Amino acid sequence: MKLDTTGLESALPLFGANCQMVDGFTAAPAFELPTTLDFDGFQKEAIQMVKPAKGTTTLAFIFKEGVMVAADSRASMGGYISSQSVKKIIEINPYMLGTMAGGAADCQFWHRNLGIKCRLHELANKRRISVTGASKLLANILYSYRGMGLSVGTMIAGWDETGPGLYYVDSEGGRLKGPRFSVGSGSPYAYGVLDSGYRYDMSIEEAAELARRAIYHATFRDGASGGVASVYHVGPNGWKKLSGDDVGELHYKYYPVTPSTVEQEMVEVSAA
Amino acid sequence: MARYDRAITVFSPDGHLFQVEYALEAVRKGNAAVGVRGTDTVVLGVEKKSAAKLQDSRSVRKIVNLDNHIALACAGLKADARVLINRARIECQSHRLTVEDPVTVEYITRYIAGLQQKYTQSGGVRPFGLSTLIIGFDPYTGVPSLYQTDPSGTFSAWKANATGRNSNSIREFLEKNYKETSGQETIKLAIRALLEVVESGGKNIEVAVMTKDQGLRQLEESEIDGIVAEIEAEKAAAEAAKKGPARDA
Fold first, then answer.
1. B98–A137: do the CB atoms touch at under 8 Å?
2. What does DSSP assign to residue A24?
3. Cβ-based neighbours of A110, under 8 Å, separated by 6 or more
4. Concatenated DSSP letters for chain B?
5. What is the dihedral of CA A172, A173, A179, A181, to 10 degrees?
6. pTM over 0.80
7. Does A1 contact B98 at a Cβ distance shorter than 8 Å?
């Protein structure tokens, strides 16, 4: 995010492009625009081509003991379920997690890139980057690619000097700070369960069960979500994976099969 | 030797970068500046050449803010200082914008030093002719720091340091008399150090004090005069004490 310094600099034009190096890790790489007569139309087409419905359910919320992060693991291409075992919670570094919704490649690549930038920040400044800073780095990069077809709807969750932090960042360039978020096609269902069951002072087990249940209910009703419900907890010492349960099994745990009395039974009809 | 000081991108046969050394000369001709770090206070003091009668002295502030919690004083070419300070101020705000946090003193010092180094390794430009003293408080831990940079682009942290004219004498004084101080004591130590090479009087010294809560505060001339008077009184008392017992014996 370069501020406009043209009004202040005078001696610099001698090596103008080098100014970028001074502020190294915030300059986003740029590439040439495609040669086409109708660039706006081209942009629209590109976006439509890659615009997935963000078929997924991810959620995260802050509570007394830190941040709880949960996600499903289904990847779908239209009506085809391409995988039931996608890792949608990305480990940026030992104390920060990112969730994946949207384009899998985009999320994975940019989260890894963010991990690199966080590490460089640590080395240069001898202290960990804050969740605020990390989410802002990602948001600035995504903003600079706005309109070019990236599809990323992610939450950055972590624990820094100021305590637990949770930010929602998307490829439109938006960045929101909040206590509870759910992203993806299954998010309305997850919000229903999450919002009605949420209390700030839950224990870790209670919060994990709430997160698990919210993901389960979303996978039950949303066709694009399913697979395994993973639950992670981010505490003062970093993140820890708490559970990964198949949602099919969770269904029978929440709604066990009860033997019911038979009202009518089919019997052999004696040949009349 | 004279052949190796045109284009600064070349070394001399015995490993010198002459332009950088000449820049250090320019610094040695500049006003004396001293910085002292205490436990809860950091002080900068700069020698003020007597202002011309018609000059508006408020426009020649020698100690400037880079941000709410960081200040800088320098010795050397003042015009170069202005450019460097502007770039540093922009970097402070740019950092706040991109990571939503204020810079640490070390970060901005590293930035300024990096800038100074860049100009020693590029064609067609000369190095900045100034050394800076940068003071500030860490925005997270509240720890005070004092850093110095020079035209070669090196920087390091100090408990107390001086640069500019007669900086060696001031540094010697500081080495002999430095101890951990706080509050008013730190200010006194800085002024005492500066008085080693400057004519005493509030109108020849500019002093600024930075505390964690109140940021940078420039001392009024009258305040400085008051402290100078205190220092003179202490000196006189120490002299008298030395002579006193001898007379009795």
1. yes
2. G
3. A138, A141, A142, A150, A152
4. -GGGGSSTTS--TTS--HHHHHHHHHHHHS--EEEEE-SSEEEEEEE-PPPPTTS-GGGG--EEEEETTEEEEEEE-HHHHHHHHHHHHHHHHHHHHHHSSPPPHHHHHHHHHHHHHHTTSSTT-----EEEEEEEE-TTT--EEEEEE-TTS-EEE-SEEEESTTHHHHHHHHHHH-----THHHHHHHHHHHHTTS-SSGGGEEEEEEETTTEEEEPPHHHHHHHHHHHHHHHHHHHHHHHHHHHH-
5. 20
6. no
7. yes
pLDDT tens digits, B33-72:
999 999 999 999 999 887 777 887 777 788 999 999 999 9
- Interface contact A108, partner B, CB < 8 A: no
Three-class DSSP category at A151: coil
| Structure-token pair, residue A25 | 């890790």
DSSP secondary-structure letter at A15?
Answer: G
Q: Which residue has the tokens 């820049």?
A: B23
A56 given a catalytic annotation: yes
Would you mind telling me the total number of residues written for chain A in this entry? 272
Q: Does A137 touch chain B (CB under 8 A)?
A: yes
d(CA B45, CA B28): 16
Give the integer Cα–Cα distance in Å for A90 and A96: 9
SS3 for A218? helix
Q: How far, in Å, CA of B226 to CA of B239, rounded? A: 20
Query: Which of B94, B106, B114 comes nearest A3 by C-beta?
Result: B94
Q: Is the ipTM of this complex over 0.85?
A: no
Q: Is there a contact between A18 and B118 if contact means CB atoms under 8 Å apart?
A: yes
Please name the amino acid found at residue A79: G
Helix or strand (DSSP H, E) at A139: helix A131-144
Cβ–Cβ contact A84 with B under 8 A: no
pLDDT tens profile A202-255:
999 999 999 999 999 999 999 999 999 999 999 999 999 999 999 999 999 999
* Contact call for A133 and B115, based on CB within 8 A: no
Asked if residue A45 lies in contact with residue A163, where contact means CB atoms within 8 angstroms, the answer is no
Q: For residue B3, what are its two tokens?
A: 């052949």
Cα gap B46→B101, rounded to integer Å: 30
Contact B215, B68 (CB under 8 A): yes
Residue labelled with tokens 């690199």 = A116
